[in-house]
Design a protein that fits this description.
The complex is a heterodimer of chains A (330) and B (448). Chain A has 330 residues and is an alpha/beta fold. Chain A has a domain at 129-275: P-loop containing nucleotide triphosphate hydrolases (Rossmann fold, 3-Layer(aba) Sandwich), CATH 3.40.50.300. Helix content of chain A is 51%, strand content 12%. Chain A is built from twelve helices and eight strands. Chain A has helices at 4-16, 28-53, 59-71, 76-92, 101-113, 141-154, 171-182, 195-208, 226-242, 261-272, 292-299, 320-328; strands spanning 129-134, 159-162, 186-187, 213-216, 247-255, 277-281, 303-307, 315-317. With 448 residues, chain B is α/β, with parallel strands linked by helices. Chain B has three domains: 4-87, SRP54, nucleotide-binding domain (Four Helix Bundle (Hemerythrin (Met), subunit A), Up-down Bundle), CATH 1.20.120; 102-294, P-loop containing nucleotide triphosphate hydrolases (Rossmann fold, 3-Layer(aba) Sandwich); 300-438, 434 Repressor (Amino-terminal Domain). Chain B has 20 helices and eight strands. In chain B, helix 1 runs antiparallel to helix 2 (25-41), helix 5 runs parallel beside helix 6 and helix 14 runs antiparallel to helix 17. The longest helix of chain B is centred in the last third of the chain and has 31 residues, at 408-438. In chain B, 46% of the residues are buried. Classes of the chains: A alpha/beta (330), B alpha/beta (448). At the A-B interface, helix 1, helix 3, helix 7, helix 9 and helix 10 of A face helix 2, helix 3, helix 6, helix 9 and helix 10 of B.
Chain lengths: 330, 448
């Protein structure tokens, strides 16, 4: 079978990839790297062996780099763009040593990822702030909210949660459990009730209790379902109308294993609720999350967090350099 | 819009080939490049694409195409054949144990849709006279057990759980005992979502497998998965062993290349596809139809099946005739609206018709909540107006709007949409005529 050689390679890596238990004292960079480590050993291992093997810079080298980017879900167009820029840099700087190419590729990718300064940070500077968390089914919205709650509390904020996913069985209970873990109040209605009504209640409750951050969960919805997207638009309009004084963040949760469809997701969700940021989840698998590169390129929506594990503090603020470094370095 | 984008891409590639009398090697190369790009954009894994292209190219330049008088058709045929071969050439069903209860184990990443698929599968097999028991072995995700219980109560299938403090291996074993005691002939075990690189949790799956010896282990895969699909499928396949795949969220607009990747890497059949939020939106996977669909030939067989199960056959035949002769009226439209509630959206139906690509359908988005208004509007029309919408002038529009409690804009919108639908039907009947006359690539449209 044509996969054999390739898979063997991968299994070996998996064996050596057991993640050490994370301790509280590790810095963010190290944790991000650890989280990304498993995911990228494969990538960087290949890249390094690729670059070691080549003394010279030739078409074959570029072709293989191109292949690696495509395998990371960067997508064809963005890959071509990156390769073009890389070749330009190689020419301009008259690089002749293949081992330097990696550093240049890193620069190129960081450039492609960077959205305006400070755009990658969650806005918590003024109170109150509303975080509306949206995404397709199964990307990890509720879990992300659990982690976001802990993050905001660490910044000294009083957080309230709104159980706006009234559709999926068990979703309200799931959020409730996260609320208990962080000791944050959860505004909930019954399963099957109107999510807009939940959000409405939550806004007024947040005002009454002077919560500083209100995080709203929403049901997972495929972006091509018109009715469900209209429902989301309604929720967004209620936030706008009932809570004009609040600073708003609309966060799209993306599963790092998602392929090119993620671009369409970002586009369509942005149409009903203008996105201010992306949370990239499940980076602790083997997926490399390269899809955020074309998204940053075409839509300019910045990634704000990456999810690298199941624990409540496994949510890292996004830093393009660290991300690309963790992606390319071992 | 299942695979529609890929279908469009390939179609345009082959349209270029169609005009040519004979193909050069360069032509084939160019076509292959397009196919490659389309497949990559559809998230088919890079290695799978490479292998696929090589096989097609080999056959294409190996004389089969170059010497053929209809090279375009020939390439489509080869691509279609290879695609079908890669997808698996026959439909695969789940199997049942000779000594009940039959045990299925659902495995997969977090968020792939295991719990929902458990419910959908139980519901489907219940209709085939099975008496399923669902077993809640996901003790990690908060409220996972409650989710399964809710799903179970919706379809009236019992759910066995022991809370979240018991080892999943023991839960699985006890679940089977429970099934034996209560006479359930089918047990579906919902396991926790896990990363394929999480050794502890992968070992847990191996232990459950050892303890309950499932008839089938079904890997649940999100159809939106990108290049990583091969890693996931390969890990589960090697470490736990799988017997089949369930592909979920195919009602999205992903091109679903993961289907090809997973199939290529595991060599195991895709058995079911999840097609929507509703519990009954779960279907058997048809590899041959899927291949046709990828090539833009429409999913005629699915359409027929759908129509047969939920549409009055006689009415369907009449409708089909009307569609061909363009005598489609508002009465038919109304009739269709009523049947549509069982059948899925009009758009979905139209999508299955060969020759009707995503592009033509983009302007024809029917919001299902608007259906109520549409019904009201049509019901406010006179018989004449329904048969011949051309007579509906300004004052009639006003009357219809008032009668149905809608606005003139809404009436106008409906009239416009109706006109578009008619036009589109004309287009595809013309296309069929053209195909017959010109002896071009024949569109296999036998009607409903």
């Amino acid at each position: 079978m044509f996969f054999n050689g390739w898979n063997k390679d991968q299994n070996e890596q998996q064996e050596t990839n057991q993640e050490p238990q994370q301790s509280e004292t590790k810095g963010f960079f190290q944790r991000l790297k650890e989280g990304l480590n498993k995911t990228t050993k494969d990538f960087t291992g290949k890249l390094d062996s690729l670059l070691m093997g080549y003394g010279k810079i030739d078409d074959e080298l570029f072709e293989e780099l191109e292949e690696l980017l495509i395998m990371a879900d960067v997508g064809y167009d963005a890959t071509m763009k990156a390769m073009e820029k890389l070749q330009e840099k190689v020419r301009e700087q008259r690089v002749e040593d293949a081992s330097q190419v990696k550093g240049l590729l890193k620069e190129v990718l960081v450039d492609l990822l960077k959205v305006e300064e400070a755009g990658h940070q969650l806005k918590l500077d003024q109170d109150p702030t509303v975080l509306l968390v949206v995404g397709v089914n199964g990307v990890g919205k509720t879990t992300t909210i659990g982690k976001l709650t802990a993050y905001c509390q660490k910044q000294g904020k009083r957080v309230m949660l709104a159980a706006g996913d009234t559709f999926r069985a068990g979703a309200i209970d799931q959020l409730e459990i996260w609320g208990q873990r962080s000791n944050a109040p959860v505004i909930r209605h019954q399963e099957g009730s109107d999510p807009a009504a939940v959000i409405y209640d939550a806004i007024h409750s947040a005002k009454a209790k002077e919560s500083q951050v209100l995080i709203c969960d929403t049901a997972g919805r495929l972006h091509n379902k018109k009715n469900l997207m209209n429902e989301l638009g309604k929720i967004f309009r209620i936030l706008d109308r009932e809570f004009p004084e609040a600073q708003k963040e609309v966060l799209l949760v993306l599963d790092a294993t998602t392929g090119q469809n993620a671009i369409q997701q970002a586009k369509t969700f942005g149409e009903v609720a203008p996105l201010t940021g992306i949370v990239l989840t499940k980076l602790d698998g083997t997926a490399r999350g390269g899809i955020i590169i074309p998204i940053a390129q075409t839509l300019g929506v910045p990634v704000k967090f990456v999810g690298v594990g199941e624990q409540i503090d496994d949510l890292q603020p996004f830093d393009p350099e660290a991300f690309v470094t963790a992606m390319l370095d071992q | 819009m299942l695979f529609e984008g890929l279908a469009e891409k390939l179609q345009s590639t082959f349209d270029k080939l169609k005009g040519k009398g004979k193909l050069t090697e360069a032509d084939v190369k160019e076509a292959m490049r397009e196919v490659k790009l389309a497949l990559l954009e559809a998230d088919v894994n890079f290695k799978v694409v490479k292998d696929f292209i090589n096989r097609v190219k080999e056959r294409a330049v190996g004389g089969e195409v170059l010497e053929s008088l209809t090279p375009g058709q020939q390439v489509i045929k080869i691509v279609n054949e290879e695609m079908t071969a890669l997808m698996g050439s026959t439909q695969s069903k789940v199997t049942f144990s000779s000594s009940p209860p039959t045990v299925y184990m659902m495995v997969g990443l977090q968020g792939s849709g295991k719990t929902t698929s458990c419910g959908k599968l139980a519901n489907l097999l219940k209709k085939q006279q099975k008496t399923p028991l669902l077993v809640a072995a996901d003790i990690y995700r908060p409220a996972a057990i409650e989710q399964l219980k809710t799903v179970g109560s919706k379809i009236d299938v019992p759910v066995f759980s022991m809370g979240s403090q018991v080892d999943p291996v023991n839960i699985a074993k006890a679940g089977i005992e429970e099934a034996k005691k209560n006479g359930n002939d089918l047990v579906i075990i919902d396991t926790a979502g896990r990363l394929h690189v999480d050794n502890n949790l992968m070992e847990e799956l191996q232990n459950i497998k050892k303890a309950v010896k499932p008839q089938e282990i079904l890997l649940v895969v999100d159809s939106m998965t990108g290049q990583d699909a091969v890693n996931v499928a390969e890990s589960f396949s090697e470490q736990v062993g799988i017997d089949g795949v369930i592909l979920t969220k195919l009602d999205g607009d992903t091109r679903g290349g993961a289907a090809l990747s997973v199939r290529a890497v595991t060599q195991k059949p895709i058995k079911f596809v999840g097609m929507g939020e509703k519990i009954e939106e779960f279907e058997a996977f048809h590899p041959d139809r899927m291949a046709s669909r990828i090539l833009g030939m429409g999913d005629v067989l699915s359409l027929i099946e759908k129509a047969q199960t939920s549409m009055d056959m006689k009415k369907a035949q009449e409708l089909e005739k009307k569609m061909r002769t363009q005598q489609f009226t508002f009465d038919d439209f109304l009739d269709q609206l009523q049947q549509m509630k069982n059948m899925g959206s009009m758009k979905e139906i139209l999508e299955m018709i060969p020759g009707v690509g995503g592009k033509q359908l983009k302007n024809l988005d029917v919001d299902e909540k608007e259906l109520v208004y549409i019904e009201a509007i049509i019901q406010s029309m006179t018989r004449e107006e329904r048969t011949d919408p051309g007579v509906i002038n300004g004052s009639r529009r006003k009357r219809i709007a008032a009668g149905s409690g809608t606005s003139i804009q809404q009436v106008n919108k409906l009239l416009k949409q109706f006109e578009q639908t008619r036009k589109m039907m004309k287009q595809f009947t013309d296309m069929e005529k053209g195909a017959k006359k010109g002896g071009k690539f024949k569109l296999p449209f036998p009607g409903f």
